[in-house]
Design a protein that fits this description.
Layout (H helix, E strand, L loop, with lengths): L3 E5 L3 H13 L3 E5 L2 H10 L6 E5 L7 H11 L4 E6 L4 H9 L4 E4 L4 H21 L8 E4 L2 E4 L4 E4 L2 E3 L3 H11 L6 E2 H9 L8 H14 L9 E4 L3 E4 L3
Parallel strand pairs: 1-2, 1-3, 3-4, 4-5
Antiparallel strand pairs: 6-7, 7-8, 8-9, 10-12, 11-12
Length: about 240
């Protein structure tokens, strides 16, 4: 199976470092040195990539805008942001725009490959799931219906667009309604036991999900906080 990644980085030395290590790990890479080039490559073959590695600080069209453009076309493609910045705002902004993960420069080859491998497994698992029947096809909780085979979330019959990470989080809550799930459990379930990132990625994704599913995201009724622990899906 061909594992194809779009690598978007304007600094040639870093791009070559990333490409060499990904090729050693068995990935096929396509390179772009700018946001404009990345968007052109992606739009010419939107189904041709499993993952995009996007540097945030690109000249012209930056990585955040590229991330947004990709998400406008695909909710299933994996996206990892690359950034040398330490500001939380950049990381959070990328995640809020639909990125699945981020890596802060400088990073080691082992960290790079581990993050990419982890995301690829999730993307591939969900892709294969849509091609096979599941014993339980739908879960209905109040006004929400989660179709596991078609990877759809409906609210009062209206489709809510979810990224692959958001779908996995919602699936976890729907299969454990009214049960408090701590951040560590969510992180392990969705990002994998070997994930080496930070737990705050869970909080950012919960915030993004609330913006999509709640009538008043600042006063959630369904995806509620369990103080000192994590979150739960409230059915009442």
């Amino acid at each position: 199976m061909t594992k194809r990644i779009l690598v978007v980085e304007d600094e040639q030395a870093i791009r070559e470092f990333v490409v060499i290590n990904l090729k050693r790990a068995g990935y096929e890479t396509v390179e772009a040195g700018s946001g404009e080039e990345a968007i052109e490559i992606f739009k010419s073959n939107p189904n041709g990539f499993h993952i995009a590695l996007l540097d945030i600080a690109l000249p012209g069209i930056d990585g955040l805008r590229v991330c947004k453009e990709i998400r406008n076309y695909s909710n299933t493609m994996g996206i990892i942001m690359l950034t040398a910045r330490t500001q939380e705002l950049d990381k959070v902004t990328g995640l809020m725009l639909g990125a699945d993960d981020y890596i802060t420069k400088p990073f080691s080859p082992s960290e790079l490959v581990a993050r990419v491998d982890s995301l690829f497994r999730r993307v591939d698992m969900l892709k294969n799931r849509t091609e096979t029947e599941k014993p339980v096809e739908e879960i209905v909780l109040g006004e929400f219906t989660l179709n596991l085979r078609r990877r759809l979330l409906l609210k009062n019959g209206q489709k809510i667009e979810l990224t692959q990470v958001e779908f996995q989080i919602i699936e976890y809550f729907f299969t454990h309604p009214d049960e408090a799930l701590d951040r560590t459990d969510i992180l392990s379930r969705v990002w994998g036991d070997s994930y080496v990132g930070e737990e705050k990625i869970v909080d950012v994704n919960i915030r993004r999900l609330r913006m999509k599913i709640e009538d008043e995201p600042s006063a959630p009724k369904r995806l509620v906080t369990v103080w000192g622990m994590g979150y739960k899906w409230a059915t009442e």
